Amino acid sequence: MAETKLVPIRFEDGVWEGHYSGNTAPQLEARYRDQVLQGIEVSEAEGGWHVRVPVPTVLLSDGVHSVIILDSASQEKVGDITVIAGAPAVGDIRAEMDLLRAELDLLKRVVRRLSADQG
Fold first, then answer.
1. 93: domain range?
2. Contact call for residues 30 and 53 (beta carbons, < 8 A)
3. What is the C-alpha separation between 97 and 83, in angstroms, rounded?
4. What is the rounded distance in angstroms from the CA atom of residue 80 to the CA atom of residue 15?
5. Distance between CA atoms of 96 and 64, rounded to whole angstroms?
6. Which residues of 51-90 are buried (b: 16+ CB within 10 A; e: fewer)?
7. CATH number at residue 47
8. pLDDT for 97-113, tens place per residue?
9. pTM (2 decimals)?
């Protein structure tokens, strides 16, 4: 199996864009505060796939906000988007903490699914 990777290209006009390397079209979902974001577009590109994620305006408010991009089938994280807005950030640690919270939400969801399947 070829290694897959999502590489950021740009974040402009409220749309995050990246390049996904892989042989087959990825089935991706983006989550913000454990809610699935709508409107992800995947199109064929040279050497892989072009991914576009429209970023909702709720992320453009004070604080640090993180979106996690997942493989829909495996629920594995393939990328993330971090938006820092408003008052000057205290430091990158806030962005890291927000990302850890988002990943913890993902982990909790997987554990709950496994628990439900077993019992």
1. 5-118
2. yes
3. 13
4. 13
5. 9
6. bebebbeebeeeebbbbbbbbeeeeebbbbbbbbeeeeee
7. 2.60.40
8. 888 888 898 899 899 98
9. 0.74
